[in-house]
Every structure is written in C-alpha cells, then in structure tokens.
Amino acid sequence: TLEAQQFSTTTKLRGEVIFYPAGVAEADQAQTTIQQAGGVPTVQTQDNTIFAYRVRLNFDTSFTGQDRLRTRLQVADTTPFAGPVTGTNETRLGFDSDTDGALLIDKLFYEFPFDNGKGKAVITAVNGEANEFFDTYSGQLESSGNGALSRFGRFNPLMYRVGGAQGAGAGTFIMYDFNKTVGIGVGYLALNTNSTVGTGAPVSAANPDQGLFGGNYSVFAQVNVKPTKDFKFGLGYSRSYGTGFDNVGGSNGFGVNVTGSTGTSYAADPFGSAKSGDDTPTETNGVNLMFSWTALPQMIISGWFGYTWANALSSSFVASNTVQKNDQAQILTAALQFAFPDPFGRKGDLGGFIVGLPPYVTDNDSGQIVNGQLIKRQNEDVPVHIEGLYRFQVNRNLRITPGFIIIANPQGNADNDTLFVYTVRSTFTF
Question: What is the pLDDT of residue 279?
C-alpha cells in the first residue's frame, strides 16, 4: 500500500525486520589466562535456543535528488552472545542489539556530493560508523541483515570499529575519487562520554568540558586502489583515544573499547582498570590492509590484515593491576572471506565461508600480579574464527540464512573449550 500510494515525494521509507533463533552449544565459558591463574571457577554455557528480533525503519529524504538525509528508527530485543553468556565477545552475532523493546533513533546523518560527483561529504550526528561510508572490501558479506552472521566476520574491526566512538558517534567523513583507479577517504568521530544513548536521553559529541578531542574519538584515513576490473585493495590508518570513563553520566559503558566489542577481552581493553569502574585511558594507532578479488563470476575472495599499537596514558596499581604510563600493547587481526553469489544457478542466493583471527594481544608491557609474578595481559594462544552460511532468496522481500560460527582457542587461551554458535536469520525487507 505504501508503494502504491507513494509514502512521500521527498522521503522514502525502507524497512528491515530480522527474526532469528540462535543458540550456543554447551561448553565451559571462556576464561582469560589471568583469570585462570587466579583460580576463577568455570561456568557452563546453557544449551538453550533463544528467539530474537531487530526492526529498522530508514527514512531517506532528498532535497536535491543527489543528497540524502537518513533517519533510522530501531527496536530490538535480544541477548548478545558476549561475556555473560559465553565469556567472550568473539561469539557475538552481527545483528544482535537490544533497546529493551523501546523505539529509538538509531541513526542520523546527512550526505551530499561535490565536484561533479567525484567527492562525497557526510555529517553524522548519531551512531556514526566508518563502514557505512568507506569501502570495507567485504562485498555482500558486509551487511548485518544479509551478509556475515558474526560481528567479527563482516569487516576489519581494527579499521572500521576502532575505538569507543561508535554508538553515539558524531563527526564528518569525506571521500574523493581522483579517477577510476585511486580514491581516498578521511573521517572523524567523537563521542560525548556523558552521553546516555539507548536510554532516550539526548546524545551529543559537543562536550563543553572535554571538547571535540578531549573525550573518546576515532580518526580514519584510507587509500583505495583498483588496478584492474576484478581486483582492488585499500590501505588504512586508524587512530583512537579512550578516556577510560565507564561511569561518567551513570554507567554508560563508554570506556576503552579498542576493537569495537570484537576479539578477546585483552584486545578490547589492553590495560584494564585504572580505578573502580573506570579503564586506563588508552590511545591507539593502527595500520590496515583490505582487499577484494573476483576470482570467478561466482567466487569472490576478500580479506584483511590489521595491526594496532595501544599506549597506556596513565599508571595504575589497582586490584593487582600493574600499568605504567606509556606501556604498550600490540593487537593483531586477519581474515579471509569467500563469497559465492548465485550458486547452483539460484539468483539471489549466497554461500559464504569465513576463516580468521579475531583481534588478540600479541604482546603487552602491563599485567597483573598473581602469586608474586607478573602475568602479562596478552593472549598466549591464537584465537581462530570459522564461519559458514548459506542465504536463500525466498522471494523479493524474504531471505533466510542458516549458518554456524566456531571459535577455537576463545579468549586466546587453548585451555578453553571450543565454542559453537548456530542461528537461522530471516530477513524481511520492504
């Protein structure tokens, strides 16, 4: 009816509804090396299947026919397969979200072209994310509603999720193509650490006490190169700063989160607590390589490699946590994605396979004192992510995607049980 009666002459309504059952096979929750050394008892995950949903309504308004003002409303109710469930963020699904059943403004940005379409500028006010405006090189596996099933498997987290600015990010992105071969992109996101996004309270990145660069922020720069029709690659630089203030404004959870809630706990917060409720202020600098190769019409190989240096900006000796100012931690991630569009002659179907290394800490100067010894906050073993999916195009509006996620050595600890996640995502669009 909306299509027949034309919703608006200037605004288009695009909706997406996701319903999904999902579960985690029974296993012990993943523990970090330090936790095990401290004698933390194991807790089993529950082999129970949940049923959850996410609804998004995108209102796209154009004033000139070339620009776009997007306002997104979202309501969702799910339990993320994160620390309280599995002991790690490595098992999170790419479409998990929870608004406690409340309808909230989830996205607000305005974009417009310049220089005869060679460039595009974006001003984002709520929930700015670099992956929406930069090329992630993940193709059909990028989408949370129709691509990879996992949060990690969508794209390089050390490039497009870096820092703690996502969630209430406000800032600016500029992309420019010099020609068909070379283009660049730069971006900046700021987060007001007093924000209470998700509670219905106003969100702003203009914190008068901290300014644009005093609170959590992320900076991005990317060079895109497409030497041939079937191959392209990108070189990226990311920088972030996290104040460490978890509890400013009332436990809003906007402390240090280097990897955007992916990978091991040490990778997300390499230096731990500075005092009760707060993290050690942390800055990062990362280099990233992404690529995509259409090897065959029905096989696309893409992937990434990311390496980040994190620096502690203060010293702390709290709860046996030993951090010296200027301590450094190195964080690594890598992945290969295999996408098979239109397999078996079925138009719209997609097969996918992803194998990768979720972000983990390869070396760290800081740690905790356990039984008189310094145990560094680094992962002794390499976590491995394996994911398979097949998306069925049922009709123009409905896609159903069953799949699985396997995490070996979760939390970078080979003593942990291998974790197995299963789900069937149904995505209805209109």
Answer: 86
